[in-house]
Amino acid sequence: MEKMKLKLLYSDLRPELEMIEKELEQAVDSESLLLNDASLHLLQAGGKRIRPVFVLLAGKFGDYNIDVMKQVAVPLELIHMASLVHDDVIDDSEIRRGRPTVKAQWNNSVAMYTGDFILARALERITEITAPRVHEILSKTLIEVCRGEIIQIQDKYKLDQNLRDYFRRIKRKTALLISSSCELGALVSGTDEKTAAHLRRFGYFIGMSFQIIDDILDFTSTDEELGKPAGSDFIQGNITLPILCARKDPEIYQLLKANLNKELSDHERLEIVGIIRNSSGIEEAKAMSERYLQKALRELSFLPKGPGVKTMRKIAFFIGKRNF
Q1: How confident is the model at residue 163 (pLDDT cuts 50, 70, 90)?
Q2: How far, in Å, CA of 101 to CA of 89, rounded?
Q3: Of 72, 159, 264, 288, which residue is most buried, by most CB within 10 angstroms?
């Protein structure tokens, strides 16, 4: 239901998004039946397609041409998909979007090469754009995403990490790719530099808010709503903002410490999820997400008025208040 509400917000882009969906399928097509099956397995599980949406909306501020915009929108969604396949190997995840992950359906080797293949297809596709600046931004973003993944591995099971560790992690893991989606959409449509800069900062701030809400939902949603076990972040050793805020309570800190890096029964998992859900950590994390949301909205206030701004504002509010 919530996903339907989100799609209604950008229903004006439906024809373009349907085209991009077909292009994504074509992009992962290969002569290998195994690669096809593994790639389509994730693609057909669906997704919010936030990155292509922001590419298209940013393009509305310039000379919008869908034949050009799709050459950026498709690679950015492919890069996101590749990172999810790799993430599931690193986190040993069995379920994503209600379906077995690629590593669970096949194995780690197939998953790693599937992720590499999807990433390679993204890089192949972006070569349709000849502007060096586009490749410079995308390559720097990819480097930072990889750094973020390594930092996440290094920070696993570290309950005593500080807030700065968390924010530098989600910046590289999520916010920069959304920021680049906005900036690249602006650049390939010939938008002026000032507008492109505001769009880049909007993408960064909304990306930070988006990831914080994602981390909150890991505790406040049900297994069914998430399509995976609630509390997965904690089980996998990923210390997120709700945990960092809730650990100030000495009793919660001791509980988390005692159960970190331990195989939990469903009863123990749901007990921890319930304690974090009812702690002050959730409200504190929401307040932090709201700060980033307001910063994102402020960037929109500097942009030329038009339907693009209106839709971006609606999506921003939805992201800040979403329940999935």
Answers
A1: very high
A2: 9
A3: 72
| Global confidence as pTM | 0.93
Band (324; pLDDT cuts 50, 70, 90): low
Mean pLDDT of the chain: 94
Rounded distance between C-alpha atoms, residue 191 and residue 271, angstroms? 51
Task: Measure Cα distances from 95 to 2, 79, 261, 276, 294 in Å.
Answer: 20, 20, 19, 22, 33
Structure tokens at 78: 């492919």
